[in-house]
Specification:
This protein is an alpha/beta fold. The protein has helices spanning 21-27, 39-43, 46-56, 73-86, 97-111, 186-205, 211-232, 236-256, 260-272, 276-291, 298-305, 316-333, 348-357, 370-378; strands at residues 10-13, 32-37, 60-64, 90-95, 134-138, 150-155, 160-165, 173-176. Helix 9 (260-272) crosses helix 13. The N and C termini lie far apart (42 Å). The relative contact order is 0.12.
Length: 381
């Protein structure tokens, strides 16, 4: 069996890393950027930290900000028009998963216009050309969209989110600067951090996991577990840890897939507009309990990475419970809710079907039926 690993051509890590953007753009001969960033980041001056650098270097750009959480087909199509109108030749994506995913879809369709309907990109679409170059600058410590071959778009008309998996969408440069994450409110820091933990745990237990990705995921679990509480408190060390931990998780899961915590979270986002990180955090311990019997000794290593003591003296049942308990406690400590008030019994058939059809579902270590998924959703009620 052959295993593939895809990563950025170049990545920069550490405080002040955004200073490298101008030199990279010039050295690659880029002429004009479409800066994709959401309105809040522009309003609070976060996007300006990068555009100031572009201004100082006399690099041309235009800003596209018609981007919302759980970005839609319309957001993408308007972005394509903006790219063309600007005469841009590359994209700088500044933000969390929403800005990154919008930018990826724009870049792919500019290079592969036969997919301009956007819906046809779902799953593993047969694009033939790489995206226009993307420089990705994350402002949230969780999604790892800057180092993945995945992006997720919301189909408002059909009330569903669809996952696109495409090696052609990988940003050429990732700039992971923890100072860009300093303005995140506590709730967003907690939610995106738990998304990172979900990436790491699902990537570690997915059917396609192997030794190299296990290395990435266990380290990501360790870093996230020790850093997230501090990051939520806006401590420098915590922010820096989460910036690195979430990127390392992305190095793994992008190459082996995820599971039903993500497929169910995507569905909750599409139907109730639940923030993705919150949905993942609520689902993760529930799904871990469901999957436990199909994970061998992996929960022992998850518990160990999360700082649980004496795991080698525990029985299988004990270390599996310890791993789930550690995840649940971290989620509680950073203020993630355990119930979703919007969830209705009448919606469960649609939710379960959508989650079952989601591109993340097949990677789950335990095959889940729609009835299984309904039972798991009920645990949020």
């Amino acid at each position: 069996m052959t295993n593939r690993i895809m990563l950025n051509e170049t990545s920069y890590h550490g405080a002040g890393a955004i200073q490298e953007i101008a030199a990279e753009a010039k050295s690659r001969g880029y002429q004009k950027a479409l800066v994709c960033s959401d309105p809040d980041l522009i309003r609070f001056g976060v996007t300006g930290k990068v555009t100031d650098i572009l201004d100082q270097a006399s690099l041309a750009y235009e800003i596209y900000s018609d981007i919302k959480a759980n970005p839609t087909i319309e957001n993408v199509q308007k972005g394509i028009a903006a790219f063309k109108a600007a005469g841009a030749d590359y994209i700088i994506a500044i933000g969390g998963g929403s800005s990154m995913d919008t930018a990826k879809a724009i870049g792919i369709i500019i290079a592969n216009p036969e997919f301009e309907d956007v819906r046809s990109l779902e799953g593993t679409a047969p694009t033939s050309k790489p995206s226009v170059p993307i420089i990705a600058v994350p402002t949230t410590a969780g999604t790892a969209a800057e180092v993945t071959i995945n992006y997720v778009i919301t189909d408002v008309e059909r009330k569903r989110k669809f996952v696109c998996v495409d090696p052609h969408d990988m940003p050429v440069i990732a700039v992971i600067d923890p100072d860009m994450m300093a303005s995140m409110p506590k709730g967003l820091t907690a939610a995106t951090g738990m998304d990172a933990l979900t990436h790491a745990i699902e990537g570690y237990t997915t059917k396609a996991a192997w030794e190299m990705t296990d290395m990435f995921h266990l380290k990501a679990i360790e870093i996230t577990s020790r850093s997230l509480r501090g990051a939520v408190a806006n401590e420098k060390e915590g922010r820096e840890g989460m910036a690195l931990g979430q990127y390392i998780a992305g190095m793994g899961f992008s190459n082996v897939g995820l599971g039903i915590a993500h497929s169910m979270a995507h569905t909750l986002g599409a139907v109730y507009d639940t923030p993705h990180g919150v949905a993942c955090a609520m689902m993760l311990p529930i799904v871990m309990e469901y999957n436990a019997e199909c994970t061998g000794t992996k929960y022992r290593e998850i518990a160990r990475a999360m700082g649980v003591k004496d795991v080698d003296e525990m029985s299988q049942e004990e270390y599996r419970k310890a791993a789930v308990d550690a995840v649940r406690q971290l989620s509680i400590d950073v203020g993630i809710p355990t119930k979703l008030e919007a969830l209705k019994e009448a919606d469960l058939d649609f939710l379960a079907h959508s989650a079952h059809e989601d591109a993340c579902a097949p990677g789950n270590p335990k095959d889940a039926s729609e009835e299984d998924l309904k039972a798991l959703f009920r645990k949020l009620m």
